[in-house]
Inverse folding.
């Protein structure tokens, strides 16, 4: 009887731990917005330096250049952009969307 109670308690703890881990796997940090000028790109590392801050690009990052959809590799140094990114617990910033600003569009930074 004592062994069965201990086994049930261990099973309950295991289920709670598994549920917590599953919630953590679905965690996505809140999205934030930014804007700036691309200073440097390193496609091999998937990095973009924008106004002195390092952001990471994924192959799935949505890119708009001149109003048309493109790929992260179409971004260029000196390009004025607005973007959406996620900031993770390790302070990394990952861009999910990037849009080139038109010449007459104001660059608003926060």
């Amino acid at each position: 009887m004592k062994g069965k109670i201990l086994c049930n308690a261990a099973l309950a703890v295991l289920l709670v731990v598994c549920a917590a881990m599953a919630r953590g796997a679905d965690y996505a940090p809140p999205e934030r917005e930014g804007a700036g000028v691309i200073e440097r790109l390193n496609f091999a590392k998937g990095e973009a330096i924008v106004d002195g801050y390092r952001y990471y690009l994924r192959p799935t990052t949505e890119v708009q250049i001149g109003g048309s959809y493109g790929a992260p590799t179409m971004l260029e140094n000196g390009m004025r952009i607005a973007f959406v990114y996620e900031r993770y617990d390790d302070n990394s910033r990952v861009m999910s969307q990037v849009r080139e600003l038109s010449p007459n569009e104001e660059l608003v930074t926060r």
Remarks:
- The chain has one helix and six strands.
